[in-house]
Amino acid sequence: MSTGSSSTKHKTFSSSSPYAEPLWYSRNLTPHYTESHRKLRAAVRKYINDEIIPYVFEWELAGKVPDSASKRHAEFGYLATNTELSNVPLPGGIPFEEWGSWHSLILMDEISRLVCRAFGKEFDQDFKGFTGVLWGLGGGNSIGVPPIVNFGTPKQKATYLPGVATCEIQFCLRITEPDGLEPQISDQILMRITGSDVANIKTTQSKKEITILSPVPRITNGIWADYVTAAAGSKRNLSPNYLP
Fold it and tell me: Model pTM?
């Protein structure tokens, strides 16, 4: 079994404190990670440290990631990772054909550092982290775009995915149905109550063109999105719908 570049002397990446970093950052014994992964790790760490962390408290308080920062995020390829497009840049300059699950894991590990508290500044003791910024940088796309990638038609993919990669289009996901409301029935849609139990969703679709009548208050990144990926069931399956 290969252990990567075990013949060369290994340098600990970043902190050497126990549990401060993923274990492989301080060891050179892994069958999974190569120089491609190390290149990505270094690029994402530098980007987060230089271009996100210095401003993260300001953005969290403002309740919005600036458009200029979102565009920059797209330019570095971070929004393209959800699209599976082969003709757009990816983070760290990693070629599309090299990108795999371990690259995605590294990306999530490094970006999730935003959820950690403080970063050397004095914040209120009840301020636990920067989850809002983490989601504001593309969290809605991360859950709203995969249904298009996996189930969309070629026309839908060509229409939406390039714009997602360049930050011209943002998606969110609508699954949760409104709790405590009576079902509303029309000839097009039936809305019932559900949580995040998608398999048992009660929203049904009877026509290709649907109208959703009930309010849905809990949609991740809904206030920033251009389109909503909405689930609607039928007698045979559960279908995604893409609503402006």
Answer: 0.75
